[in-house]
Queue: 2 jobs
Job 1
Amino acid sequence: MSTPRLDVLKEVYGDDFERAKRRFEDIYEKFKKEFPDSEPEFFTAPGRTEIIGNHTDHNGGHVIAGSISLDSIGAAAPNGTNTLHLFNEGYGEFSIDVTRPEDFPKESGTISLLAGMTEYLNKNGFKIGGFDVYVTTEVISSAGVSSSASFEMLLMAIINHLFNDGNLSFSDYAKAGQYAENVYWNKASGLMDQMACAVGGPILLSFKDEITYEKIPFGFGDYGYDMVIINTGKGHADLSEDYSAVPNEMKAVAKALGADRLCNTSLEDLIANMNDVVKKVDNDRAILRAIHYFTEDRRVLDMVDAVSKKDFETILSLIKESGISSYDQLQNVFTNANPTEQKITLALAITRLFLEKKGRGICRVHGGGFAGVIQTILPHEDLDEYVKYMSEYFGKENVYPMNVRAVGAAHLEK
């Protein structure tokens, strides 16, 4: 049976390589059942965690993000036609003509993402042909760890390997995914999710001009700590308005200061012109969100410095401050459309009781917020007790201890 080489699996999955091997054996069998005449290549793309830099990307700021141990995997082979034929386990079967992506519907889930990425590639001179692919994922859906970006980056890794001789950059991957979400899904996606899933490892991202990134040498495990993601459950309200309001309100403050985005002005300018901005914007929350942007962007750069000094106490303190600022100023822990539903707020409160009893560890809202996920960072010796504790309230299936992994979207050699 064909699977990725064991040394390759060990590099990507570490001590979990045996379970990864079984996953690829399983996906190989499923691929061969659907496409018996083809021999597949194997691919992976992780979900992502935002470590610090909550809602700064869309206004030209900095983010530290990392790929996580939960990933999407695929088995794929070219089929010599113009048809992309996808089995997406748990989501369904899809086919598109890669020469005519405009024929396929928008705002229709997976098929729209496929059409959008294909259209981006065609418009920008990249190659794509027909291929057969079977995909399965462990990345939590609708929970702030970028299941859609993981899927997009998996498909881009496949397309890069099968048709472009590995010549696409991670920025090309990310822009194709963003185009699909912006144009075909009507979702105001930035590039942070896609870049974190594509590149892998902890990375510092800058969004001021052309997106840039650099890997940084950091992992919670280096200091005897673990990261845990708690999926509190998808909110019942439509969150599109909440997500769009954050960048729009920040940009309204920037406009009042004579700039297009907050990265082109400063906290000092805001404070010096506060009374004028208050009159122009007439939205106190927008000003609070702008203050969050400026202080959060500074925290990201301070964390880069702390990482270089291996100052873990400062690292934890900065991430804790990030969570407090998201709670108080950014205000993305629940939606005003349904203020009685506050799963994130409740999960944070329950977690803080645990951490205060232990006298160590931190927690914060994770990702876009308003509903979904919190992130907890705590010593390894407290991990099992915390998992059991939170499982009482949210179910063990929603408590995910995880690591930041070094490998992003990639072809896995056999």
Job 2
Amino acid sequence: MTEQTEQQPMTTPPPMPEAPPVQPQPLPQEEHQPPVKKDRRVLRAVLRWTAAVTAFAAVGAGTAYGITGMQRTDLPGLATQSDGRWDYPTLTRAPLPSGSPEPFDVRNTAGTHYADLRALLLPAPKGAVADGKLRGTDGWLAAKDFLAEYAQKETRDDLKQSFTDDGLRHIAARGWTTPDGTHTRVYLLQFGTGAVVDDLFSSEAPADGPTDQLRGTITSVFDDDFPSEAHDYNVDYSAYVETTPYGAEQTRQAYLSAGDVLAVIVQSRKGKAKAVPFQQTVALQSQLLG
């Protein structure tokens, strides 16, 4: 060590030694391989979650589902809390009697909903005030109370006769008013077979606009902005919006054909009826029926 130290002041530097061999460095992929695997696991988890949210419209029987925990989906009515959606409780399908098939089971040729119709009603969102007029007796609403939604007496009389001829079994209904003043009414009409409901749906809910105007509306047309994904794939729908000019309130309405059940959903609000909570309400009610 001492000799090496004394040779350092030499005026003529000794030849440079050959560069030491470069130690091979691990490739970036090898050095960071564990994090990559972890990232892939995270990515797969994200993709699975995204797929699960996108498939919200196809949730299977017996699965608990809802929108309270979701952060984003492809459905305008079920996107983020900031878009104006309501805080609905988590939904679960109504129990079926033992051995009963689902309404869209191939064995269920009549499309019968064997679950209690009252249990298929969408619950009110958080903060809403219930509409006591729609509670009916033991949860069953009289036909005249549903028919009061329609503006013309002739319409009410014709539908009343049609319900008699078509064998209307029950009407279950629920209504509420949210803090922003939106008044929602949901009616489930159950008949003997799905064929009867298909005929009623075709008659009352054509593509160009509803056959019969609701009370307080002037002209309603098919809602072209309503996302087709915002309903169960087993359920047919027609959604309408009241066009301008309208009165003090604007009304949105939808008809759902689901096996032996015809659902009618109405939302009205002073000024303008918002699209997002309407789409959300239709989507969730169709899930309970589909």
